[in-house]
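Illustration: Copper transport protein.
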Amino acid sequence: MMHMTFYWGRRVTILFDSWKTDSWLSYFLSLFACFLFSVFYQYMEDRRLRLKLLSVSKTSPPPSAGPSLSTPLLLSKMGARNWSPSRFAGGILFGINAAIGYLLMLAIMSFNAGVFIAVVVGLGVGYLVFRGGDEGFVVVDNPCACA
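Result:
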């Protein structure tokens, strides 16, 4: 029977029926895998945001004092920029990152407290290592709640 509340224990099924832990060694290796997967999520998010920042800085027009800066909703997004290689790569990275985020969410939904802690600590460590110095720029979009 699936747990519907948090519990502590070494017996847990994570994501797939074949990923079951029945010993302390397999449990801790699974927690370590969840931790690494969470750190990798933050790494991929950093790569995606840096690619977006790089593509925006290369394609943005020089700043002007005209009314186009005050009315961003009226700017046309049609044109060659929509299918540029960097935009395509950004879309692929977004999809990969969204998939990783949802898999992490589903792992947490095993309701095992150890899995929850491993994922949250992994996200924190990944943010600290890969995205801790992001104060220099602001990115508005956010692919999922895990970011």
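Reading the tokens back as a structure: The chain has a mean pLDDT of 81.
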